[in-house]
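Hey, quick one: can you model this chain's 3D structure?
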Amino acid sequence: MVIGLYAAEGGCCENDNGAYRVTFNCGRHETLIIEQAKQYIQDVFGIEATISNLPSKPTVTYVRISSQVIARLFKYLVGGNTYTKKLHNDLLLSQKSIKLQILKGWFDGDGHFADASLSKSVSEDLVQDMFELCKSCDISARIGSQSQENREEAFHVAISKDCKTELLNKPEIQLRSGGKYLTKYGKAVKVKKIERISGPEYVYCLNVEKDHAFIADGFAVHNCVSFGSAGAIDCLKAFEIKRLGQFEEWIAETSTEDIYGGSRVVVGRGRLGNGDGSTGAWAAKWVSEYGTLVRKNYGEFDLSKYDGSRAKSWGYRGFPQNDVIKYCKNNPVRTVSRVDSYEEARDLLANGYPVTIAGTLGFSNRRDSDGFAKISGGWNHQMFLAAVDDVGIDCKGGRNRPGVLVVNSWGVWNGGPKRLNQPDGSFWIEPDDLNRYFRNGDCWAYSDFQGYVPKKLNTRIM
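Sure thing. Here's the predicted structure for all 462 residues.
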């Protein structure tokens, strides 16, 4: 919660050596927030904040912590200044309970409550980040802006009265340490020792052969959004060639590094910082407005095989040459549309249009007797829907069991019975579970791919 409060009211003082002090600028009447901020700091960091007022600003109370380590931590988690603040990717991909505490702290600091809850900021990036947190926590929200005379434009996130009640009534994070609950202010563990290590140290880059992604503590690591999008595009290409008989040819699988870099840097404008990940909406916009590439050597760059270093570089800094975008534009997905229900997904899949699904629900790694998997835990991840069985008449026990087929990008990560020749790593899910996934608002149907026209043969040499 203290991170959300810092996003609303906080800032760091800096000198030539970097950030050295954290300050929360509170209204003098906000006595509860002042006390909360002081208590949070005591509980989490084990130090006492100072409370002060200035005669020149009688309406403001300052809560301050003079510590380089703590100041740099806050600066890392919430970068930028008042006008450019944004959340670090680690926060955007954190557990739901943490996201709710960030939102609660932000609304406490920068919000006001009427029929709806409204929280404002002059940082457009910060408001967009808070909106993304709301979506991932199943909180119905909208964003907007308001011009102010002789002042910077203000942006806001608004949530409904029902969602406000749900958010404000969420209990504080309760963590366990040695079997005992910690304070209601969400204390984790104290930093007992800070040790500086000089000289080179080994660091490790974890990877998974072929699929290049894995789950760590509930988070999908590496570029799962681009893999989900590329898989959906490959399904669309195959359907248009095989079933629709379009005059196109299969060149190779769709590459992922360009989708990852383009969605994060070009579309997302680098808002996710140096962490992994992207969003389904950004990827959908990239492949429709800029296009796609395939696994081949383009001369200026070689995408024949997946290159994690290239994906990381393009995802952080963008493309080193304009040739990437030049080649992409030849083969876009002409139409993308948001999908919000099982019925919409069913009709789209029946017409050959795959659907990407990005969200926070996890699924069991064991399929049941009908090839279905149940919701289990949570992960921040994108997959895609490749097929639909709206009847399910061949399920065990003689019952009808409609569902959609989810294809994951982790290779053989799950087990259990299969049906209808489903591929390894896939699983069926029921309509109600799919509708829960759609609540994230980041699921997209792909259609009308501009494919690769077969090269004309020179018949004069035949």
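One thing worth noting: Residues 248 and 310 are 29 Å apart (CA to CA).
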